[in-house]
Amino acid sequence: MRTVTVVGASLAGLYAARALRAQGFDGRLVIIGDEPHAPYDRPPLSKDFLTGSADEAALALTDDEERADLSAEWILGVRARGLDARGRTVLLDDGRTVTTDGLVIATGASARGLPADGLAGVHTLRTLDDARRLRQDLTRGPSRVVVIGGGFIGAETASSCAALGHRVTVVEAAPLPLVPQLGREMAAVCAGLHRRGGVDLVTGTGVTALRGTAAVTGVELADGRTLPADVVIVGIGVIPNTAWLAGSTLALHDGVLCDDGCVTALAQVVAVGDVARVGGVRAEHWTSATEQPRVAVANLLAGRTVETSRPVPYFWSDQYGARLQFAGRRREGDRVRVVEGDVAEGVTEDGFLALYERDGRTTAALSVNRPRPFMRARRELARETTQTTHTTETRETTAAS
Ligand SMILES: Cc1cc2nc3c(=O)[nH]c(=O)nc-3n(C[C@H](O)[C@H](O)[C@H](O)COP(=O)(O)OP(=O)(O)OC[C@H]3O[C@@H](n4cnc5c(N)ncnc54)[C@H](O)[C@@H]3O)c2cc1C
Predict the structure, then answer these.
(1) CA terminus-to-terminus distance, the chain
(2) Which atom in ligand 1 lies closest to the alpha carbon of residue 15?
């Protein structure tokens, strides 16, 4: 391969570029990103960056020295808008084309919005520019903030706004936030964090409209109430950035469809990070975006799938002074056992470790403020997964012979 192009100059894109060089690719490397910024880290945007305890320099994922070592051509501030049927030519918004032998798709996801007709004071939070705008609104003095959506981004943003002294309400359409991620039992426990952080949690009612003429003044709820608001943050999930691939031959369905090795239907095109649906699963977590590129690049350089990526899913969230960590593949109906700490009175400063179990085996682990026992549980999950994979492979080999 003489040229490899990476589209998406952020976390997964940077890790892919590093993996290419680490695995011996010494050809032309082109990195295309529609944001004008060098790769930066998103998790602090809803946490330390929003509260002002981290500045922009602290977000940088790379520095001049590493960029020089990577010896890549960076095309920043330019969107890729098309890929030809063979996956060999990337068309850019400024009319340029990049011809390539291999392609890494790392275009991530965009925040889902609400129709707000350009009302001032309404925000989503995905990019550095989003965070700058939100931070500016939040520094205008005490505000009434309504966060729409009680997922991780919503909860973290609410927590940061409360820490800045704003009056915050979180609106969640489901009866409880975070049920799909944590299951009902643990979601109920973690919902208590909002109240403990001085934030009102309104559940079981959707948003019907945003009120205001030039600037937002309120959020109208399906139950007839209107919550007064000076700032509204919409945290209702993301959409994978695949629109630019519409004219290609790649299979797109809530992400770019790949096999377990991040390889698409075209052997010289791989996808990684939030945009990739790997073996049927699309993760939206920092750790997946950093783990997949090594495997994807190995397969890209081999010209076929020689390695697969099935690590134990992991994510963390920082909210209201608590660190939540989750690992594993929980399913509806798993039994939950709190093995350390106590949740009878909700989440305490002391935190807890809970294990999800099915058929006598641990499927997942959740901890609040218990990083050490959590890491042990996570390692154990990884060991069990490896053993299960080996046992399954042995069975399949025996059956085939
Ligand atoms: C506010 C916030 C807080 C988070 N906190 C946590 C956390 O605590 N824990 C956790 O596990 N995860 C967290 N995440 C998730 C984590 O940051 C993502 O999983 C990770 O950023 C995914 O990396 P990525 O490179 O796949 O995608 P992205 O980071 O979305 O990067 C994709 C890049 O591609 C660019 N792009 C898109 N389309 C095009 C195109 N057509 N042409 C060129 N460039 C394009 C995008 O603009 C972007 O720069 C958080 C995310 C956000 C937004």
Answers:
(1) 37
(2) 25
Ligand 1: centre distance to CA 109 (Å): 6
Q: Where in the chain is the domain with CATH 3.50.50.60?
A: 3-109+238-302, 113-234
Ligand 1 centroid from CA 281, angstroms: 17
pLDDT of the chain, 401 residues: tens digit per residue? 899 999 999 999 999 999 999 999 999 999 999 999 999 999 999 999 999 999 999 999 999 999 999 999 999 999 999 999 999 999 999 999 999 999 999 999 999 999 877 899 999 999 999 999 999 999 988 899 999 999 999 999 999 999 999 999 999 999 999 999 999 999 999 999 999 999 999 999 999 999 999 999 999 999 999 999 999 999 999 999 999 999 899 999 999 999 999 999 999 999 999 999 999 999 999 999 999 999 999 999 999 999 998 889 999 999 999 999 999 999 999 999 999 999 988 888 899 999 999 999 999 999 999 999 999 999 999 988 765 554 444 444 444 43
> Ligand 1: which atom is nearest the Cα of residue 284?
19
Q: Choose among 19, 84, 102: nearest CA to 268.
A: 102
Highest CATH level, class, for 113-234:
alpha beta
Is residue 105 classed as helix, strand or coil in its secondary structure? strand
Closest atom, ligand 1, to C-alpha of 272 = 26
Amino acid at 329: R
Residue 117 tokens read as 């007709």
Please indicate whether residue 123, judged by its CB atom, sits closer than 6 Å to ligand 1: no
Best CA proximity match to 352, nearest among 328, 377, 332, 381? 377
Work out the angle at residue 322's Cα, subtended by the Cα atoms of residues 318 and 324, and round it to the nearest 5 degrees.
60
Domain covering 3-109+238-302 in this structure, CATH number: 3.50.50.60
Strands 80-83 and 144-148: unpaired
Q: Which atom of ligand 1 is nearest to the CA of 157?
A: 1
Give nearest CA residue, ligand 1 atom 23: 11
Q: How far is the CA of 42 from the centre of ligand 1 (A)?
A: 6
Which protein residue's CA is at the shortest distance from atom 36 of ligand 1?
107
